[in-house]
């Protein structure tokens, strides 16, 4: 969880940099936040998910877990598209600057969903 909060903090710093240095510091901070997310996914979330699907959890919690998983992967895919499109490495299918706001909103939803899953699975507390 600590890595998730650090990632969220870095993302907040990136948001504060949008008006000051959108193509410099903002992009670097977002890149760091996504890198922290990838490390968190590979080191902690993937092993936990495979363990939990193996032992069987309730269908409602399992549905939340899969929704969180796929929405989180969508955030990563959208980030990659935005990064490549802004850098001019791929043809822009969708305006990446408009997609940034959608990706941020989805990232926040995924964060809240992950927090709910963590509290439900490991602390026995449900936010929903």
List keywords for this structure.
128 residues, mainly alpha, 4 helices, 0% strand, elongated
Description of the structure:
The model has no long low-confidence stretch (mean pLDDT 85). The chain is built from 4 helices and no strands. The protein is an all-alpha fold and 128 residues long.
Q: Mean pLDDT across all residues, rounded?
A: 85
- Helices and strands, in order, run as HHHH
Q: How many β-strand runs? A: 0
Beta strand %? under 5%
Task: Note poorly predicted spans.
Answer: none
Rg, nearest Å: 16 Å
Largest sheet: none
Structural class: mainly alpha
How many angstroms separate the termini? 19 Å
Helix content: over 70%
Tally of alpha and pi helices = 4
- Judging from the principal axes of the Cα atoms, what is the shape? elongated
Task: Give a quick summary of the entry.
This protein is mostly helical and 128 residues long.
Topology, pairings included?
Blueprint: H1 2-16, H2 25-55, H3 59-86, H4 96-123
